[in-house]
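INFO batch 0412 | record 1 of 1 | parsing
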Amino acid sequence: MSAIANLGFQIPEILLPRPGIDLHKWAVIACDQFTSEPEYWQQVAELVGDAPSTFHLILPEIYLGTPEEARRVHSIRQTMQEYLARDLFVPYRGPILVERTVGSKTRYGLMLALDLEQYNYRQGASTLIRASEGTILERLPPRVRIRSGAPLELPHILVLIDDPERTVIEPLAATRHDLPRLYDTELMLGSGHVTGYLVAEEALIARMVAALKQLAQPEAFVRKYDLLPGSPVLLFAVGDGNHSLATAKAIWEELKAKRQASGRLDMEHPARYALVEIENIHDPGLTFEPIHRVLFEVKGDLVQALEGFYPGRWRKRPCAEAEEMMALVDQQAKGEHAVGLISRQGFEVLYIANPPSNLPVGTLQAFLDAWGQARGFNRIDYVHGQDAVMRLGQQPGNLGFYLPAFSKSDFFKTVIVDGVLPRKTFSMGEAKEKRFYMEARRIL
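INFO prediction complete | emitting tokens
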């Protein structure tokens, strides 16, 4: 593998399932999707059966906190070793160009291995690779248990670059039919089609590296965002999968400390890097969708809780139907934030004046965090798509919160100037558009 000096990544060796393996069963969606819809994962289990599949190599988060969690964590590592022993993987050296089509939208990505030494997920980070949303530290331990000692990583991480001139990925996409095609398959359960092409020619890789180097040029970076001279460059911003990347960071730091203590530190150990898919935020096939909230087993009084947290600063407006509520939330008048409320009784819009956050999601999340600590509800989930929040919010004992979309044109400047966004601010596409596990990489 070849590290690229000062650009925070290396050219990886990527493992793909050998010819003859059913890719329709092999590839499954990111583990943090459909966490309140057990029927989806039951369909996956029935479709896959005992066939070779990434389903047997990941822990869908719907199993977190259940008896199934411990069994699957143990099984994952055994299955990884079994697949390696059965020689189910073929190695390829070089980035992989990913073409993903869902419905009428096609987007492109590039598989690279990011340098965890140049990544920091904490607020105020000035590293080349940064989180875009807040990291919930309590969510790391289950992921650490899976990755620690595992011989393979399987990424669902999507990382963004700000390339308005389309100089990095798009030139490769334009010549994709001249590249070796590594996989080409329909994805399960209506998630579209994915094709992967190997970028192996040194000239193509050199052009891609030169384009990234230009994006990371300090003077150009400062001019682009109207920053003070010397402002630290942000080249890669994590869009999806920040907790998985934070887990990889934690494992690397632990491994580094142990090896340093024993005098066996190897700074080019494969665990120093994490395989991700890079996407251009300006790709027209990439959309930012809001992530809505659903509260389960609500015990407290919402009106009383709102008045306690935003005294005299909130009001609500009933709506005859969901469409009216969504339209009012999507408008977002100045001076106050609007959030949709969905319950068994119907639809309303909550308005909060003089909001404490720049974004409605931040204003809502601050309240929900406090209400959750006061045990106003039993559990919160973060759901993609208006259908899911409508359906779940209207179930007895639940409350749903509908949020407006976040403009991707403001994304990089907001992360650079304000730091990480409130957690679960946005989603890169809806649930079925999320990244599927396909590629793997040795980390031990």
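INFO post-check: The mean pLDDT is 94.
INFO record closed
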